[in-house]
Amino acid sequence: MKLNQKKSDKLFLKAQQLIPGGIFGHYKFAVREEGPKFFSKAKDAYFWDVDGNKYLDLICGWGPMILGYNNPKIDNAARTQYDLGNTVSVASPIMIELAETLTDMIDIADWALFGKNGGDSTQLAVMVARAETGKSKILKINDGYHGANGWMQNSSNPGVINSDSDEVLSVEWNSIKEFDEMISSFGNEIACFISSPYDHPTSKDNSLPEDGYWKQIQKKCSENNIIIIVDDVRTGFRIDLHGSHNAFGFSPDLVCLGKAMANGYPISALVGKDSLKDAANRVYFSGTQFFNSAPMAASKATLEELQKVNAIEIMNSNGEKLKEDLISAGDEYGLKMKVTGVPSMPYFRIEDQNKDFHIQWTDECLSQGLYLTSYHNHFLSVAHGEEEIDEIIRIASNAFEAIIS
Ligand SMILES: Cc1ncc(COP(=O)(O)O)c(C=O)c1O
Q1: Mutate to test the pocket of ligand 1, among 146, 198, 379 (most ligand atoms within 8 A of CB)
Q2: Strand pairing class (137-141; 54-57)
């Protein structure tokens, strides 16, 4: 099926004249030759492109949308605060209310600091860990994504230099053996271990922690004065509203939050244990827009609404249904669908088929109105109900049919 995408294509040509590549950052990788380039509006689990095509969205703005696009409760909370003032020369009391909401919700949180993007909170987290321990090295997981600052990127990426990651070490996910080796070589220099609560790399099956993994990590870190930073930027509020670490039974020192915490309004947070409050106070990290009060109001409303509607239960149950139904739909066409990760963030792969075949399937879904990717985990929201799951399965099945025939 070919989409009408005249306006999208025309706009993309114009964008290419004015914006390097036409689009940048992580949005760039998702642009398909046949597929939407620009949206005109969005509502609940759907968006419409500039040509009027409607998409059921399994990407949710790459994570922020968790209560449905244009959720009136969240938008009203933001609007009310905008009317009072957004960026003013002093902070709004809403900042304290949000800090209180977060410290009440996230079990390890005794304090909160705010930024704009997830990369602000991961950057701040390692600075706090360094300030506290007096050590400089960062230990991370191979392929772990923590944002776009120099040390977070592969040193072979354009614009990144080797010294950006001089102080970064990495180990294989779930490998206690590699972790132990790093500690015996560099334990005295490692300030922190930063990792998502489970492994969600691109273009690979996602992988949950093995039994006892995090407990062992916690013990080793505490014996070696290494701060545990959980990067919950992507997973936050999609696994456990008290912090994703709760679902995996351990207690980090710092938790980085972002994406879903305000249903799309720009804000991120670093929360931490009391023992790191002094270090967090000593570190200088800031941004002109960090004190925007409307996103803070949106975040408070989002966090309250997630608790009120029992968001985790809804996303888990619909995510499980999506997984089961998609595997059955694949079976009908002799295709083995593998679905990994947690129910609210599924990663899809067609086993026994090469990547090109998988891309053909995602492109076909796209052209039938299901917005998804071939290389990244997907996101469910509270607005993805049974009706949406059934529609995803209907489109996925049609796409299976189209590519095998
Ligand atoms: C696990 C994780 N950490 C950090 C980030 C960086 O967040 P941001 O893009 O908001 O800076 C991301 C973004 O995708 C992420 O998935």
Answers
A1: 146
A2: unpaired
- pTM of the predicted protein model: 0.97
Domains within the chain, CATH numbers bracketed: 6-67+310-404 (3.90.1150.10), 72-308 (3.40.640.10)
pLDDT (tens digit per residue) in 210-257? 999 999 999 999 999 999 999 999 999 999 999 999 999 999 999 999
The pLDDT tens digits of the residues spanning 86-129 come to: 999 999 999 999 999 999 999 999 999 999 999 999 999 999 99
φ, ψ of residue 93 to 5 degrees: the values are -60, -15
Residue 312 contacts by C-beta under 8 Å, 6 or more apart in sequence? 238, 239, 240, 241, 306, 344
In angstroms, what is the span from residue 118 Cα to ligand 1's centroid?
5
Give the Cβ contact number of residue 388 at 10 Å. 21
Ligand 1 pocket by C-beta < 6 Å: which residues? 117-119, 122, 145-147, 196, 231, 233-234, 258
Closest CA to 403 of 372, 362, 370: 362
Instruction: Please count the CA atoms within 13 angstroms of the CA of 321 that sit on its side-chain side.
Output: 17
State which of 233, 261, 379 you would mutate to test the pocket of ligand 1, scoring each by most atoms of that ligand within 8 A of its C-beta. 233
Residues 328-332: contacts with CB under 8 Å, at least 24 apart: 329/393, 329/396, 329/397, 329/400, 330/400, 332/397, 332/400
Report the distance separating Cα 62 and Cα 41, nearest Å.
16
Mode of pairing for the β-strands spanning 137-141 and 111-115: unpaired
Phi, psi of 333 (to 5 degrees): -110, 15
Distance 235 CA to ligand 1 centre (A): 10
Q: Which two tokens stand for residue 75?
A: 């938008």
Distance, in Å, from the CA atom of 375 to the CA atom of 249, rounded to the nearest integer, reads 29
E strands in 86-213: 111-115, 137-141, 168-171, 190-195
Report the DSSP beta bridge partners of residue 271.
112, 255
* Cα gap 377→240, rounded to integer Å: 18
Could you report how far apart the first and last alpha carbons of the chain are, in Å?
A: 14
Token pair recorded at residue 143: 């392929």
